[in-house]
Amino acid sequence: MASLLSWFWRQPYILLTLTPLFWAGNAVIGRAVVGEVPPAMLSEIRWTGALLIFLPFAWRELKAEWPLILRSLPMLALLAFAGLTSFNTILYWALQYTTAINTSLLQSAMPLVIGLWSLALFADPLRPIQVAGLAVSLLGVAAIITQSEPERLLALDFNRGDIAMLVAVALYAFYSAVLRKRPPISGRSFLAVTMAMAVVMLAPVVALEAAIRDPAVPDSPGIWLGIAYTILFPSLLAYAFFTRGVELIGANRAGPFFHLIPLFAAILAVVFLGERLALYHGIGAAFILGGVALASRRRGAKGTPSASSSAEPRT
Predict the structure, then answer these.
(1) Would 1 be classed as within a structural domain?
(2) Do 141 and 284 contact (CB within 8 A), yes or no?
(3) What SS3 class is residue 127?
(4) Is residue 312 domain-resident?
(5) Cβ-based neighbour number of residue 274 at 10 Å
(6) 199, 47 contact by CB (below 8 A)
(7) How many domains is the chain partitioned into structurally?
(8) pLDDT at position 310, please?
(9) How many Å apart are CA 173 and CA 259, to the nearest integer?
(10) Confidence at residue 300, expressed as pLDDT on a 0 to 100 scale
């Protein structure tokens, strides 16, 4: 068994294929669970459970780096708010109104939104081909939120879940762009601290949510299994697998695996939720992924990928 695990831990392409599968499953499970568990409460349970499991593994680094962590609290709080607290809560809220397929397809535009934030915050230049890629991807986003019916754009007739998902994408892209300012602490300390901050930040939101909506405890084993999935797979295993994959083959070669998320999400949503693929999904996906591919073209043989992408996992 130990030799099998050792072999598995040396297989980057298996690890990096399972990672987007786990993240895609988060959208599908979230879609199934949010009818029973309010969005903020689901996020709170998810990060509390993940923190309790992960804390023993990060304790040594936390103790050693605690003075630096204290000096870096404002930046850590900003990253925790944008990357963990807001993104996941808005994602779960959006899933009350739109499909798992839509939310996953809209996330495909993430690399280009990161590029826009990098331009706005750090004056990272966008080359003409990146601008063209952004324009093409935006056509794909428009196709999804309008269901390929242009009159919806003129009438401002959008699904609130799709619009909320665009806000979530913008927030996570901000998080990814600002990661370059992350304090120089270990990955374990960073994840443990931002998880803890997310738990604290979500507490008043959960209280407000409970005052508005009945906070009844779920009594279905299936719901608790879904919650357990969000704690173990997209929160813990996906992070570990992605980090190991980057360690083995580098961030640039690991980045394209993000684009498996909408493919896996579509398959899982059709199989487990009975969602249906429509023509506008295909049109939107083609434009979004085509735009990302266009913007990611290298300058030359020795160039570096021009599309911005996060070297940190989605949470």
Answers:
(1) no
(2) yes
(3) coil
(4) no
(5) 7
(6) yes
(7) 1
(8) 47
(9) 15
(10) 47
